[in-house]
Amino acid sequence: MTYAVTDNCIGCKYTDCVSVCPVDCFYEGVNMLVINPEECIDCGVCEPECPADAIRADTDEEGAKWVAFNARYASLWPVIAAAKEPLPGAEANDGLPGKRDTIFSPDPDPQTA
Question: Could you tell me which residue ranges the 4Fe-4S ferredoxin-type domain spans (predicted)?
């Protein structure tokens, strides 16, 4: 079992989850985070920390749909090991539908890379 970051992280990028992760399995893109499923130890401490409720277990239907996406971008983006401020407009983006198709960026965060 692993956890996956879902589309509600897009445009928000809260990093509360990063500060509690004991294995540094979060990776950072321009406007979202992902979890490397090969590094996640299934401890679950990140899930309740996400203000946007964007982290799901792979046993959850929504989480299962995002595992391959998380694995792909974890292999392309740099690891993030410390919390940062959320993106400007995070509160307004929280809960918007269809963010993967409208505002997702596949680019790594240049400040982390």
Answer: 1-26, 31-60
Q: Which residue type sits at 34? A: V
* CATH code, 3-85: 3.30.70.20
User: What is the C-alpha to C-alpha distance for residues 73 and 92, in angstroms, rounded to an integer?
Assistant: 24
Identify the DSSP state of 43. Answer: -
Whether pTM exceeds 0.85: yes
> Domain residue spans in the chain?
3-85
Could you read off the pLDDT of 10-22 as tens digits, one per residue?
Answer: 999 999 999 999 9
- Cβ 54 vs Cβ 8: under 8 Å: yes
Q: Residue 2 belongs to what H/E stretch? A: none
Q: How far is CA 65 from CA 68, 70, 71, 90, in A?
A: 7, 10, 12, 23
